[in-house]
Amino acid sequence: MALVTHHPDPVAPAPGVRPLPARRRIRLPGGALLGVVPFFAYVVVFLAIPTLVVAIGAFTGDSGGFTLDNVARLGDSYILTAFGRSILLSAVTALVGAVLGALLGYALVTAKPDGLLRRVVTAASGVLAQFGGVTLAFAFIATIGLSGFVTEFLRDRVGVDIYASGVWLFELPGLLLVYTYFQIPLMVIVFLPALDGIRPQWREAAASLGGSTWQYWRMVAMPLLAPPFLGATLLLFANSFSAYATAAALVSQGSPIVPLQIRGALTSEVVLGQQNLGKAMALGMIVVVAIVMWLYALLQKRSAKWLG
Amino acid sequence: MAGVIRRRARRQRLFRWIVLGVLGVFFLLPLLAMLEFTTRGTGGSFSLETWRLLADWPKLSQTYPDLATGIAASLGQVLLTVGLTLVLLVPTVIWVRLRLPRLRRVVEFLCLLPLTIPAIVLVVGLAPVYAWVTYLLGGSSLTLTFAYTILVLPYAYRSVDAGLSAIDVRTLAEAARSLGAGWTTVIWRVVLPNIRSAVLSAAFLTVALVLGEFTIASLLNRTNLQVAVNLLGKSSATMSVAVSLAALVLAFVLLLLLSLVGGGRRRTSPKETS
Q: Under a CB-based contact definition with an 8 Å cutoff, are residues B148 and B77 in contact?
């Protein structure tokens, strides 16, 4: 796409012309600042204000005024349980997704860098990781729902009833399975750059010095890949912790995880004061995700050193 | 040495096909199940009834008016969000690079912020803002554009920023300015053509994200494709699965085109040429 031919010095002065100072220092970039006003105004209205609404609402009582009641109610057993379940769901799917996604990523890296296989898998990963939501819930209902393809196959041909002990698809085990389905592709997208950074020359160097494959992995590749791997795992954790659509489409009764608890607080007209409790839960979510993303940024800095 | 490399290549190929095979089954099975589910006729026969109906827009909007409304709303949201995102973000990012380099960190931080604020949390805070939006502009589903533009900021910013890093914006701008171009000309006729593929990829990602969005639309009581599909799932599961699958395939084709159009040359790292 390069439309510009590179001259050695495109702004070299013609002979006899006194060059203008190339970068005129403007002391007061007031005029320049006007250019970013629309963007900043927009971000304030649609991002900063909503965040403040959540933060302030979490500490506001039903009749206005400052209170710690909402935050204190986060200690209620059912909310604590929901946070616990959310964290468990996110941690398990992040770990499983990270390991399987890393394997798939490595399988791709050993293929041709711009081959069709890699392009198809990367595009498919992009779709499944970002697009998920309601679609994936329906995909799994069609697969292992009560009249799903696999369910019927197993029941009629093999004689196994996977729902003998209850319909687990619409509960936490079902969420674990469906979440893993979108965590693996996300891992592929996030972890591929790090895998691409591992150069074959290092392996050759290790081999020429008499190192075995196992030694190469243990002493060269793994230490290099550990920070980006951990970072990607954290990103996966944040991703499933924030996910809502899949769970909302799959679980219609009860609210096993925090996002669904917030849905309950938002849509319940019955109990007044639920609104601000919802904001307190939302603030709790922000805190968890912020901590995770902060750790992620730290690890990114470490791996940026050699990924360059 | 050559023998070792050949042996390793063989081992890697074996590993590759085992991993791809196992995970491929896991990933393709639900998609095939969707296809099977939508082609089930009465009494276990094969039927294309659902897909025929989906392809027949007038009949579809008669049979499932909610679904037709949802699809139309999503298409409108896609167009408006792509437009608003590009108008708001691209000139700002270019401008900051050229004239206000000190603000670059701030803009980057703001653009990536939506990644740390879950959509479900954003909805909680957006509710009062949307009370105003409804008051000023009415409660049309197209107003979701405002929230979606925030959601796609991180992805759009990353691709535009990567595109700008790949060219020497400063030199280009100075060359154009020294030939007497105004700032508008510089952005519109010098910088933009050079980051065309980055802007295109930002637009594609926006389309995919908006088509798949459910959380905000559902909780702000507006409609779009996903909300309609979810609603339909309660009454006509077959149709909702068909629409889901069609949307998934559409998004996949979009992203595959993107990887074939752009990215081919941009993603080769300088390491490989050295």
A: yes
Higher pLDDT: B151 or B61? It is B151
Q: Give the DSSP letter string of B180-207.
A: T--HHHIIIIIIHHHTHHHHHHHHHHHH
- Residue B259 parent element (H or E): helix B237-261
What pLDDT, on the 0 to 100 scale, is given for residue B274?
Answer: 37
Size of the A and B interface in Cβ pairs below 8 Å: 257
pLDDT band for position A12 (cuts 50, 70, 90): low
pLDDT at B268: 42
Mark yes or no for CB contact B149/A22 under 8 Å: no
Contacts of A189 in chain B (CB under 8 A): none
- How sure is the predictor about B273, in pLDDT bands with cuts at 50, 70 and 90? very low
Q: How far apart are CA A177 and CA A81, in angstroms?
A: 20
Inter-chain residue contact B16 with A10, CB threshold 8 Å: no
Q: Give the pLDDT of residue A69.
A: 81
Q: Report the interhelical angle of A258-267 vs A274-307 (nearest 10°).
A: 140
Q: Does residue A60 sit in helix, strand or coil?
A: strand
Query: At residue A14, what is the residue type?
Result: A
